[in-house]
Design goal:
Blueprint: H1 5-19, H2 24-30, H3 34-41, H4 44-50, E1 57-61, H5 77-82, E2 85-86, H6 92-96, E3 103-105, E4 119-124, E5 140-143, E6 149-159, E7 162-167, H7 185-191, H8 195-203, H9 207-212, E8 216-221, H10 223-228, H11 235-239, E9 242-244, E10 258-260, E11 266-272, E12 275-278, E13 281-290, E14 293-298, H12 304-311
Parallel strand pairs: 1-7, 8-14
Antiparallel strand pairs: 1-2, 3-4, 4-5, 5-6, 6-7, 8-9, 10-11, 11-12, 12-13, 13-14
Helix pairs in contact: 2-3
Length: 312
């Protein structure tokens, strides 16, 4: 009698264990992301990617924020889907604990990042952070292409393959209901209203070259900053705002770090009260993800000496 009870006890134990193993699709449905779940299941390639053991975290738009067709820019649903998933198991604390945020390497491949995949960058919204949007949901946002970002509504929803964070589209300027796919730098500058720097690149014959480069970080002065800096322009000036062969998402810009620009000048990073500066000039809009790196908008020009040289 004693031994005959063992199979029954094992059955009960297995049943309890299985009960906690919620599938991705079931977890999405329970989290209010049923439309996203349907979208995943509609494409065998996307479904295979999302149910692969390699996928550990999924960023899922909830039903009010997921509309098909995705948007006028979502021409490749598979790419959009891969940009919403990562093989890193990133819980909410890791995304929002560090003021500068965390770099999340997604499953979207790129041929312009020296073998690395595209990334999204988290940031914790706080009242003292002038560059952040108002707090929504958990207060953590995820930056993507064309200056778009979404807010994490609810985090750390477990499923049998990892974690789900539900997101909205409230912070995006382009009606995206998913992460905005990164575009070339020239397209990003035009869309983000950084026309003066973009025009200078075109005039100097550097626009196409920059778009075709691999792994770059560009510090772009705002239109107001450039308008106030008379004489700004020329290849040396523009290249002095570009760091080659390095994708410096904000979390990777450490206090005191020094980088050499394409013009051979140096840029030094400093952090004061959670605000990031390059050569003493504040980064006002960080983490504009582009096809070949990242663009940070700054509120001044980083090469005053070069400007004076051009003027003279």
């Amino acid at each position: 009698m004693h031994f005959s009870a063992i199979p029954a006890l094992l059955t009960v134990a297995l049943t309890i264990t299985t009960t906690h193993a919620v599938s991705l699709i079931d977890a999405l449905n329970a989290a209010g992301a049923t439309r996203f779940a349907t979208f995943i299941q509609s494409d065998p390639t996307i479904l295979a990617a999302y149910t692969s053991p390699a996928t550990r975290t999924v960023f899922a738009p909830t039903d009010p924020y997921f509309i098909q067709p995705l948007s006028r820019r979502a021409t490749n649903p598979e790419k959009n889907a891969l940009y919403q998933a990562t093989n890193q198991e990133t819980d909410l604390q890791s995304l929002g604990f560090v003021p500068a945020g965390s770099v999340v390497t997604t499953e979207l491949t790129s041929n312009q990042l020296n073998g690395a995949n595209q990334a999204s960058v988290s940031r914790k919204v706080s009242a003292g952070n002038s560059t952040s949007k108002r707090q929504v949901g958990t207060g953590v946002t995820m930056a993507s292409g064309l200056g778009g970002s979404v807010s994490i509504l609810e985090g750390d929803i477990s499923y049998d393959g990892g974690l789900i964070h539900t997101v909205n589209g409230i912070d995006s300027s382009f009606d995206e209901r998913m992460f905005t796919l990164p575009e070339p730098i020239s397209t990003t500058l035009t869309t983000a209203g950084l026309s003066l720097f973009n025009n200078l690149l075109v005039e100097a014959g550097l626009s196409s070259t920059l778009d075709g480069s691999s792994s770059v970080t560009v510090f772009v002065p705002s239109n107001a900053a450039l308008a106030a800096a008379s004489g700004a322009g020329g290849s040396a000036f523009l290249q002095g705002h570009i760091i080659p062969s390095f994708v410096g998402y904000l979390p990777l810009l450490t206090n005191g770090a020094v980088f050499t620009t394409q013009s051979g000048t140096t840029l030094k990073i400093s952090i004061t009260n959670g605000q990031f500066y390059v050569n003493g000039i504040q980064i006002i809009t960080p983490n504009n993800i582009v096809g070949n790196g990242v663009v940070h908008v700054i509120d001044g020009v980083s090469l005053i000496g070069t400007i004076r040289g051009i003027v003279s």
